[in-house]
Amino acid sequence: MHVTSEGLTSRFYEPGARWRTVAFGPVFCAGGLAVEVATGPVVHWVALPVVALVLAGFTWVMVVAARRHVSVELTGAKRADAVLRSGPEERPSSEIEAVLPPAVDSWDEPQRWESARPLGELANVPRGRTAVGLRLKGGTFVRAWAKDADLLRVRLEELVSR
Prior knowledge:
single chain, alpha+beta, 2 domains, 4-stranded antiparallel beta sheet, transmembrane helix, DUF3093 domain-containing protein, membrane, transmembrane
């Protein structure tokens, strides 16, 4: 269970990216350095640490961007105070009128919500995520999204059905 900075418990949380990803490049470079020390006459004492820092730096930028733009969180115990955050966009759950059923794999007749605006600042649903159709009050369709879209759909339906 994830606890927000305001002390609220999340009903659903996906961070977008994990900080441990930043360590992958340096760990591989350390492994390469260990192999060079154990087996070869030439050891790249300067090059491998520099490459490790460069990889960690680029990965750090990617993780920060993913956590800012691709994270999803649903907070609140009751419908009145629940908020769905997709990237930087927050939407109170009281604005959600209905959670729509999953899309049927049909190329000839897509559902109306499948071409709706995705929540957040991105132009489309992020890669590796699945859309969840929502109908807002006033009849507007939007697409929420998550890696575990089925669990997000269940959590949203629990709120909307109350």
